[in-house]
Amino acid sequence: MSRATSESGTRLLLIGPPGAGKGTQAARLAELLGVPAVSTGDIFRWNVKNETELGLQAKAFMDAGQYVPDSLTNAIVHDRLQEADAGAGFLLDGYPRTTEQVSELDRLLHSDGTHLDGVVQLVADRDEVVSRLLKRADEQGRSDDTEEVIRHRLALYDEQTAPLIEVYGRRGLLIEIDGLGPVDDVTDRIVAQLVERGILPGDGESAAS
Ligand code: AMP
Fold this sequence. Notes:
Elements: E1 10-15, H1 22-33, E2 37-39, H2 40-49, H3 53-63, H4 70-82, E3 89-93, H5 99-112, E4 118-123, H6 126-140, H7 147-170, E5 174-178, H8 183-196
Parallel strand pairs: 1-3, 1-4, 2-3, 4-5
The structure holds adenosine monophosphate (AMP).
Adenosine monophosphate (AMP) binds next to helix 2 and helix 3.
């Protein structure tokens, strides 16, 4: 398996609607890149499950399919990215989701003297994501995967998060990927794009070069 070569590590975002397969791809890419996958959704779910103060504050928003307020969300990302394992890069899954979160991430990266290497956008057809989310609701019993809440989460994505695609597009960071089809195919498409941009070494290149 190839690994990222950069001494300073790789910093990527994964963006796309709920149900586009971000979590699955994040875990695979993080492994390939040798960086931690940081999912704000997972952090919130862990806190809800363990009934922490943060979990208690986040739960009502999550159950209603709303975004957790920026102040809370920015604080957990700030803390998580200070941890030692994120010092040499990270893959953020599900953050930022609002323009205020983009500004906060810009501030964090700037104060660390680092920058994003790319923003992977998983593009998936609306009917497909709804049916994936309903299937996941059946399999995992997530309390935010009822049909009504799913519709609300998608509307919120369109209103608050889809505009970020344009923001990162203007910065020349966007890597658009067709998120439909078998999981392995989607990973292959992402890897090919990362290799093309020099973010991952290509086949035959030495990881030490
Ligand atoms: P996810 O697993 O990424 O779909 O996140 C599940 C839920 O956690 C979302 O529906 C939100 O309620 C909350 N959440 C996760 N990430 C964020 C974020 N960046 N901003 C606000 N709320 C978030």
